[in-house]
Amino acid sequence: MKIKTKEKNSLKGMKALILVGGFGTRLRPLTLSRPKPLVEFANKPMIMHQVEALVEVGVTEIVLAVSYRAELLEKELRAQEERLGIKIVISHEDEPLGTAGPLALARDILLQDSEPFFVLNSDIICNFPFKDMIRFHKTHNRQGTLVVTRVDEPSKYGVIVYRPEDGQIERFVEKPQEFVSNKINAGMYMLSPSMLSRIELRPTSIEKEVFPKMAVDGELYCMELQGYWMDVGQPKDFLTGMGLYLTALNMYNNDYLHEGPGIVGNVLVDKSAKIGNGCRIGPNVVIGPDVVVEDGACVKRSTLMKGSRVRSHAWLDNCIIGWKCSVGRWVRMEGVSVLGEDVVVADELYINGGRILPHKSISASVPEPQIIM
Q: What residue ranges are annotated as transmembrane (predicted)?
């Protein structure tokens, strides 16, 4: 196990650890071409949404806990280090260490001062409440703050029971069959360095092995997230999260959203993209750099990644089109179809829920959801 760091001028400020984790299998075929944190969400690598939000509240050192393809991630983030004026540390696990083990691996960095630090799951998209977390953590002055979010179907999740008057967590209940709470762990924590003595350097779950003991000791509090939240680690949720993100963008900063003929609802378009005549784009569409959408195409609830081309009169709904793909004329795609990098779909085909691996040419329809190898 090794930690790679790059010395910068002595930066003083808060620290954060992002749990990047492993293979990104849930987001295949996109993650066959690049690590999941570098897959673009709303035209920005997923991890940069978190990194930039952390920098905004004064974080100056970020540890990335990685167990797979660390060199690609490191190369990309070295460029961002200079731009943002921060220090990025790659903490590379020889074996996956779960969600708590990475904190033990990075213990020496996190213990360099007595300031609390952030810990995040890398798949989370929301209006990151980092300022509120700092304030709340200082108020209760215990070892841990956990952010919770409300869900409609709590029986699918592990839920959190806490005192509403002050947020002290009483217990965790896994997939309750009777209602006890509708609040779940949102994957964002602020932790005081003293809690690191609870974690050994071995594969460990912070949610199942560490937090319940902290709650018993009265050392864990939670605050409720306001606004949207989504774990975007799989295609269906990626597309749902994209819609939530665009809605929030429209509320808070709609200068980024695209307007014009044929644009319906919230649509984000890179400046270098080209959209033909007579198209219908939206709602909830993201169009990346160097994308071409030819005349008469219809795209809704989808993302088109860099360099892809949608040919004339194609119809896409609930799709992720990977980098440098080509979708043929009069093609119809729907049902959370995902094209890996450099896939060519021939004219006049129907794709329903297809997951197509990179560098494939598709010459026959895919009427039922399946993986095309």
A: none
With a cut of 70, say whether residue 334 has pLDDT above it.
yes
Active site residues: 175
Q: CA geometry: angle at 71 spanning 68 and 74, to 5°? A: 110
CATH 3.90.550.10 domain range(s) in the chain: 14-231
pTM above 0.70, yes or no: yes
Kindly report the CATH number that applies to the domain delimited by 14-231: 3.90.550.10
Q: What is the DSSP string of 73-120?
A: HHHHHHHHHHHHT-EEEEEE-SS--BTTHHHHHTHHHHTSSS--EEEE
Listed in order, the ranges of the chain carrying CATH 2.160.10.10 are 262-371
pLDDT per residue as tens digits for the range 135-161? 999 999 898 999 999 888 777 778 888
Phi-psi region of 176 (alpha: psi -120 to 50; beta: other; left: phi over 0): beta
